[in-house]
Amino acid sequence: MSICLAIDTSTSRTSVGLVEDGALLWHGFQDGATAHGSALPQLVSQGLAQQSKVDQVVVGMGPGPYTGLRVGIAFAISFGRARGIPVTGICSLDAIAALIHEDDFVVATDARRKEIYWARYINGVRTEGPSVDLPKFVAAIGVSAFGEGSFKYQLTTNEEFLFPDMASLVELSKNSDNKINEAMYLRRPDAVPTSERTQ
Amino acid sequence: MSAQPLVLGIETSCDETAIGIVRGRTLLANVIASSVDEHARFGGVVPEIASRAHLEAMLPMLDQALLQAKVSLKDLDAVSVTAGPGLVGALLVGVASASGLALGLGKPLYGVNHLAAHVSVDLLTHANAIEPTIALLVSGGHSSLLQVDDITSSVVKLGESMDDAAGEAFDKIARVMGLGFPGGPAIDRESNNGNSTAIDFPRGLTQSQDWRERPFDFSFSGLKTAVARYLEATPDYVRADVAASFQEAIVDVLLQKALLACKKSGIDSLVIAGGVAANSRLRHVAQERCDGAKIRLRIPAPALCTDNGAMVAALGSLMAAAGRPASTIGIDADSSLSVTCVSVA
């Protein structure tokens, strides 16, 4: 029996799950694009009250807006170190896509600045992305769209599958090909070196 | 809680990812990864670059600190973290990590004030009690005069900078003079060869009305403008003299006000802390003037003046030993946390 703590902060929803052998034992979430910092420890604490023994941590590595994304990753790696248990990073978009049974579709989350983080999946395999682009670029692909970003920018009216799924995050971690070691920001920091600034 | 709590402290308020471990007043580990070189070409700290670097450095620093202290995480009595003030995105990496550690270990978490931590680090270098004391806190983000009756619960702000922090003024003037970033150490070095009385730069908020109305507040923007104008008007200026005179103006006004605070409060103890406390001229003149005024001066070792994790651990350890309540689960970073708030509930 292996119990896994799943965490994702790559979207405006802070999600935490406890998963045992593919079954979701407990799930908690809080919505709010700037709430990750306070919400995550509270949610994990609630989960641990149900089930204190955890054997593994799986965390969504994005892509996602930077500050919230880092909260999840920083918490996960530190919690893992404290317990002496492994921590596995997974592409958050894959944990939305895993719920969708269509041959060809895109998943997009909100990247702010009127852009979306997105990836395309054909026959269950990620074939493009993750990338960050304007919604119209993704709309032009002309396939079904899912996820918070797709809904926000009217690529879909489907309000299901907006956020990463905790049980899927854990399931994906079983395949070592899915593992991701670094936060996926997909953009460089906005900063202009002094030498390149216009006076 | 033990009288000598073993506490790990995490500091990520600006560009240093720093972790310290103390047992009571004994420093066991103090490790720092700095992203300062990545910011140099931008002429200042870029928050997003700093935040990314914090995340990358967190586990390596944690492992290094534990190795240096020869302790394991499960030995800890508590975890302590800078909750503010600072860059919010940078702070959040530390707060999230500390929350993860504390929840993972089942140990209390203290979210402490960065400025109070700067003052408390004095405990790790000086054995005698620090309270009550006047504290002059001078760094890249802050210039404050404080009355510290109890560092774990009672810090009163006497005054602060109305505009730039002292360290910020150092950075800006160093940039104008092409001395590089960070500016404090660069101006300190340049000043060694200069005449500090060569140019009479203004001392902000030292007019008679200022002494009546805001004796303990600082202002460095006028000084900054005066130096910039001088440089413009004097093409063949002597860089070392400008640096030394500028530095003298800052040191002079900081100490005039700090000593007045001691005199007015009747407290014969002064702690100088924060990154600017590493400035050699400030340390030297402070000692001279405090000796003259019979004030006990304490300045932490230069390595403990700049941002570090030991100071965060030190304050956490004091809080734990004093039986102060730990922070609640889910504390948030507070970029503008007031210095009078020693820890967040």
UniProtKB/TrEMBL annotation, chain A:
Record-annotated Gcp-like domain positions: 35-133
Organism: freshwater metagenome
One Pfam family here: TsaD
Taxonomic lineage of the native organism: unclassified sequences, metagenomes, ecological metagenomes
A biological-process GO annotation: tRNA threonylcarbamoyladenosine modification
InterPro entries: ATPase_NBD, Gcp-like_dom, T6A_TsaB
Protein name: Unannotated protein
Automatic annotation (TrEMBL), chain B:
GO terms, biological process: tRNA threonylcarbamoyladenosine modification
Signal peptide: none
Reactions the enzyme catalyzes: L-threonylcarbamoyladenylate + adenosine(37) in tRNA = N(6)-L-threonylcarbamoyladenosine(37) in tRNA + AMP + H(+)
Keywords of the record: Acyltransferase, Cytoplasm, Iron, Metal-binding, Transferase, tRNA processing
The EC number(s) this enzyme carries: 2.3.1.234
One MF term in the entry's GO annotations: tRNA N(6)-L-threonylcarbamoyladenine synthase activity
Domain Gcp-like: 27-313
Gene3D superfamilies assigned to the protein according to its UniProt record, in alphabetical order: 3.30.420.40
SUPFAM superfamilies per the UniProt record, alphabetical: Actin-like ATPase domain
Keyword Iron among record annotations: yes
Key word Amino-acid biosynthesis present: no
Protein name per Swiss-Prot or TrEMBL: N(6)-L-threonylcarbamoyladenine synthase
Species this protein is from: freshwater metagenome
